[in-house]
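Journal club prep — side note

Before the paper discussion, L.F. wants everyone to see what a predicted structure for a comparable chain looks like in token form. Sequence:
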Amino acid sequence: MRRLLPPLILLLITQPAAGCNRDREPDAYGTFEATEVVVSAETTGQLLTFTPVEGTQLLRGAVVAVVDTSQLALEREQVVAQREATGSRAAEVTRQIGVMEIQRAIARRAYERTRRLFAQKAATAQQLDQAERDYRVLAAQIEAARAQRQSVSKDVTSGEARVAQISEKLSRSRVINPETGTVLTTFARAGEVVRPGQPLYKIANLDSLTLRAYVSEQQLHAIRLGLQVQVHVDGGDGTLIPLPGTVRWISAKAEFTPTPVQTRDERAGLVYAVKVVVPNQRGLLKIGMPGDFDLPATASGT
């Protein structure tokens, strides 16, 4: 004898699984992208160490590479020695100026005394000329020494600037990872010689990805910043996986429909780009993966 199944069980059997089908076409299509950062070398030298590996996680602030700067270190030692020698010369010139100023004070008193004696007919004109010459020569020598000290001081300042410049280059020998994320691509290996500006690796934070999709002008009124939408991606077995998304950016100007992207109304020649941020805790989303989203029924007017 056949048993009849209750209507509720029949309904559950014939009802498709949630997320496997949809009743209507999505409101917008697009592809996922992430903010990618290319980290480059900042100084010239051989890579002593290089730890980034494609697909691995790096923390913000981690030292990921070290560039050999032994040549810079030697150059810094040389410049430091030159600066110290120049500083010693400046100190010596200052000491000499002090000695000559004492001698000039003595020569001035001798010159003034000789002038008085000459006025009293107690000194000859030759003695007066000699006293005046001694005084004025010392004054000229002091002025020359002061000019020399000024020049030496500039050399000291220049040496200090050069040391600071080399020290700054030495600090750049350690490559610091700028943000926490996943290494997408590496462009260098340990042992290679790099130069400033040469890319070393590319990294991106994949904790959340952005679906860049396109909507028509007719849909634009239904979209606003902060709007919660339902994003779908292919589950790989013919099913669709629903994910929550938030609209974070809406383009201010229209553009022609990109060739690989479909829109709800393909007759509209112009579309607007929209960015929807989607959490990626399970690592399901990948850069370049296609996706789509549905607007809420109240927003889309359906």
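L.F.'s comment for the group: The chain is about 35% helix and 30% strand. Keep this in mind when we get to the figures.
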